[in-house]
Amino acid sequence: MKSFSPILAGLVLALALPVAQAEAPATPDLKEWDIPWDNTRPRDPWVGPQDNTVWFVGQAGDYVATLNPETGSLKRYRLDPGTGPHNVIADERGAFYAGNQAEHIGLIDPDSGEIRKFRLEGDGPKDVHTMAFDANGDIFFTEQGGNRIGWLDVDEYDFRMFDVETEWARPYGIVVSQDNRPWVALFGTNKLATVDAKGTSHEVTLPREGARPRRLDMTDDGMVWYVDYAEGFLGRLNTDSGQIQEWPVPGGPDARPYAMALDDQNRSWFVETGHSPNRLIGFDPKTESFSEPATIPSGGGTVRHMVFDPEARALWFGTDTNTVVRATLR
Predict the structure, then answer these.
(1) Are 137 and 122 in contact (CB under 8 A)?
(2) How far apart are CA 304 and CA 271, in angstroms?
(3) DSSP alpha helices (H): ranges in the chain?
(4) Among the four 51, 96, 215, 302, which has the fewest Cβ within 10 Å?
């Protein structure tokens, strides 16, 4: 494990206040679907390759499910009690879920409901947290308690595990770059992490000691965007130059920005979970302006993860108030 000296050498912090609200992103149109399985914490929707299929997991209900947004119909795939599914991603092979409490990644056949389990390896906690496909359809993932970044070759059932240098760094949100490198938010410290093509881990220290990055996303040109949950900032790391720029979010230091995603115009969207009801806010880096907050109709409770569907130009997320939400961009 090495520190990421090329990036650290170029580290620059610029704190910027948003400019005038003119040309800010328009407030999205929100639609919520009530999930009938009460108190199951539906979360982490993923738009599947099949038409009208949105996957999500019930973290407190031990299920993976689909929603057809055209008809509102739902289908539930029950998992073993105690699985604690945390995240789901899907492609033509089916839906992969993170069995957070049961130490495996599962693959569900949408037609038969059959499940193939990939058991995690190694000592200590094996709490697969958040997953992301790489360019070959294999899976990078984080282990928050295990303090590792992992990679699964799906066809070969082969794992590679990369320890994070900082103790109790709590690897959390993850995204995979165009050059097939994972970038990870280390929620237990003020750092981001990555793994290079040789399998060497590197860490990037954020400028503020109190920062706690939780979720992140990445543009095609190598800009990593992240939200600082602890102190209420939206940040951007240029992975080529190492420059970091940050903006205080509209809700202030107690805003608790959590779920976040980028849209097709490289605008950042995030949910302030420190407010009740939770608030969805967009940020345009061209004008450095924030949108007017869109409040979650059900309140949201806590919105934990979000994805962007480019075909529908919509954001999807689940809530602790037992709903799945589509935010259609204008």
Answers:
(1) no
(2) 8
(3) 5-9
(4) 51
Rounded Cα distance, 212 and 209, in Å:
9
Tell me the pLDDT tens digit for each residue of 249-269. 999 999 999 999 999 999 999
Structural domains of the chain ordered from first start: 5-328 (2.130.10.10)
Interval 95-110: pLDDT, tens: 999 999 999 999 999 9
β-strand partners of 108: 95, 115
27 CB-near residues (< 8 Å, 6+ apart): 291, 292, 293, 294, 330
**pLDDT at position 311:** 93
Query: 209: Cβ–Cβ under 8 A, 6 or more apart, which residues?
Result: 190
Kindly state the helix (H) or strand (E) to which residue 129 belongs, with its residue range. Answer: strand 128-133
Give yes or no for a contact between 135 and 128, defined as CB atoms under 8 angstroms apart: no
Phi, psi of 174 (to 5 degrees): -145, 145
Distance CA 247, CA 284 (A): 11
Identify the DSSP state of 21.
S
- Amino acid symbol at 213: P
Cis peptide before 248, with omega less than 30 degrees from 0?
Answer: no
Report angle CA 190, 169, 131 to the nearest 5 degrees.
105
HSE of 109, CA atoms in CB hemisphere, 13 A? 6
